[in-house]
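Structural prep section.
Before we set up the soaks we want a predicted structure of the protein with 5-O-phosphono-beta-D-ribofuranosylamine in place, mainly to decide which crystallisation condition to try first. Input record follows.
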Amino acid sequence: MSKPRVAILISGRGSNMMSLIEAAASPDYPAEIATVISNRPEAHGLARAQAANIPVRTVDHKAFPDRTAFDAALDAVLEEEQVDFVCLAGFLRLLTPGFTEKWRGRMINIHPALLPSFRGLHTHEQALETGVKIHGCTVHFVTPEMDVGPIIMQAAVPVMEDDTPLSLGARVLAQEHVIYPAALRLVCEGRARIEGARAVIDEFGLADRALVVPGA
Ligand code: GRF
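Run finished without errors. Recording the tokens verbatim:
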């Protein structure tokens, strides 16, 4: 049986993208990375995907008059590539409600904070300013409102007294690379789905939903 086809949408360096590509290279991974799409032609991740033999596409948002036209072009590429699931991995464009509704339950995102805390950008700065002692990352289904969709998996890391946004961000990023492939696996196996405001995971063990990483 052929595996579900996944598109990864990026805007930048693509380290989460690489974690998904590397996981999917394993024969027992339940998904195939069919394509990587960037809205920025200069995104570093494109070369990294190409080096891993993944077909890449660019849909440059600057070429479209508005978000609706851009999303329509993006959707056309996803259909052309016969994509089943979409992973946003550092994709820095707001998507229109029409697009997110169409891909509801089939599109996930990684956010560098423990949602619902610290939505938006500069999450590590926000965490340090607030003085939280635990920070982390979240994989969630994408819904029209940014950084709000049903939570599939989270990882928590400690915040140290001498952390900078850079050191804290690096600690979080290492865990992003663990939970994103794990969460995509759940979704592609049909074990994670949206029920109301929540994501429900079938037959979960604790490691399927949450990781707490002790120490630095
Ligand atoms: C990650 O921190 C991710 O959580 C956020 O954007 C960053 C992308 O980094 N959405 P990369 O391109 O995956 O390296």
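Observations: Residues 10, 12-17, 89-90, 110-112, 173, 176 surround 5-O-phosphono-beta-D-ribofuranosylamine (CB under 6 Å).
Flagged for discussion at group meeting.
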